[in-house]
């Protein structure tokens, strides 16, 4: 683990450029036409600082206080606590996870009243009967110890995917709290296609719950009872980004099949069409009708083809990069990039793409206004992005 080691990494263009470049031959980042925000004259709007490395990191969240302590999940089932001096502790009490494929320990989010109740929410893949598994979300109280670690006390499961199925793909299981204090969960369709349209399954859905897992009475399908009552929207594939913007609107992105990654504005009770429509096709070559052929389904605001494999989503409102306030940032796994999205009302478009050395799994904004990224895979690095003018700062 390496504390606060400045490294010269690239900031360039192209969706699939994963190879490093030296500062001398690093081109400016690509920008969509008519972008309102130009990059720095030398093509590098930020410096990249390597803070630490983790084993298959998946998600992170900052703890209140000095702004430099954060929880990081590792897919094999470890929850880590990174301190400002670069030391890394372990948080015990994580439930057993079903590790393999896309499954394992996933998201980590603090309750909005964490300062008072110490509640932490985690998502993970859990085994079922026979050769089945599904995602779950649990909450527990975080108790820190004097040795730099801690434990999760009183863990209780507040939500599970239903039904559990075979396979280890498309869990989704991103977590967010909304301005209404409700718990929102993205649930993938587990590579089973049809459950995304089945209201007796909560696969392929965006879920809205009370913070204890109860079902709000004002959910769009609450009158149907059962699993359907949990659902806010349906027709999703593999949603790996979930975040609210400054206006309180919920946005979600998901991986398409062979083509057709999506960024969606999530609206109450809406159907987003998968697998009936998609801007991509099945991996075996069978075509899927595009969204514009079935206007009854809610179409994405942005699509990517070739795909970027989006993962992680954050809306930026910090002071470090004032030119980006209100924009969203998305990590790209297959794209080896950080993608910036601009918004105009309910519309959105990719505005800029910064090539990175590796797959980007997670994006968060730090209390200092810096952008923090987690690389995917073994020895995945935690990176801190700051404006060029701040390189001499703390």
TrEMBL record:
Keywords: Signal
InterPro entries cross-referenced by the UniProt entry: 6-blade_b-propeller_TolB-like (IPR011042), Glc/Sorbosone_DH (IPR012938), Quinoprot_gluc/sorb_DH_b-prop (IPR011041)
Keyword flag DNA-binding: no
Limits of the Glucose/Sorbosone dehydrogenase domain: 54-384
Protein's recorded name: Glucose dehydrogenase
Lineage: superkingdom: Bacteria
Position of the signal peptide: 1-20
Keyword Transferase: no
């Amino acid at each position: 683990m390496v504390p606060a080691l400045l490294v010269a990494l690239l900031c360039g263009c192209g969706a699939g450029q994963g190879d490093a470049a030296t500062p001398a031959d690093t081109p400016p980042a690509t920008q969509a036409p008519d972008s309102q925000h130009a990059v720095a004259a030398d093509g590098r709007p930020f410096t990249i600082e390597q803070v630490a490395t983790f084993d298959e990191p998946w998600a992170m969240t900052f703890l209140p206080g000095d702004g430099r302590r954060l929880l990081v999940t590792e897919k094999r089932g470890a929850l880590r606590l990174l301190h400002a001096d670069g030391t890394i502790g372990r948080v015990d009490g994580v439930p057993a996870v079903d590790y393999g494929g896309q499954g394992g320990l996933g998201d980590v989010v603090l309750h909005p009243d964490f300062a008072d109740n110490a509640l932490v929410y985690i998502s993970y893949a859990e085994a079922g009967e026979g050769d089945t598994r599904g995602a779950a979300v649990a909450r527990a109280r975080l108790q820190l110890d004097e040795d730099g670690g801690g434990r999760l006390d009183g863990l209780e499961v507040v939500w599970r995917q239903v039904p559990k199925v075979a396979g280890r793909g498309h869990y989704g299981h991103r977590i967010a709290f909304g301005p209404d204090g409700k718990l929102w969960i993205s649930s993938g369709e587990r590579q089973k296609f049809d459950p995304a349209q089945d209201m007796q399954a909560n696969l392929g859905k965006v879920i809205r719950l009370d913070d204890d897992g109860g079902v709000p009475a004002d959910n769009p399908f609450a009158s149907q009872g059962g699993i359907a009552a949990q659902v806010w929207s349906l027709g999703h594939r593999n949603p790996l980004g979930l975040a609210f913007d400054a206006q309180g609107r919920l946005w979600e992105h998901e991986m398409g099949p062979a083509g057709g990654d999506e960024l969606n504005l999530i609206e109450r009770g809406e159907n987003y069409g998968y697998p009936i429509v998609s801007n991509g096709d099945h991996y075996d070559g069978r075509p899927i009708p595009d969204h514009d052929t079935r206007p009854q389904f809610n179409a994405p605001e942005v699509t990517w083809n070739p795909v970027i494999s989006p993962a992680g989503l954050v809306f930026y409102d910090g002071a470090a990069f004032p030119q980006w306030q209100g924009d969203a940032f998305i990590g790209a796994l297959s794209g080896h990039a950080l993608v910036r999205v601009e918004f105009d009302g309910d519309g959105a478009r990719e505005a800029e793409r910064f090539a990175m050395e590796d797959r980007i799994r997670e994006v968060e904004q730090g209390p200092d206004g810096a952008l923090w990224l987690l690389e995917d895979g073994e020895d995945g690095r935690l990176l801190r992005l700051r404006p060029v003018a701040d390189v001499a700062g703390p």
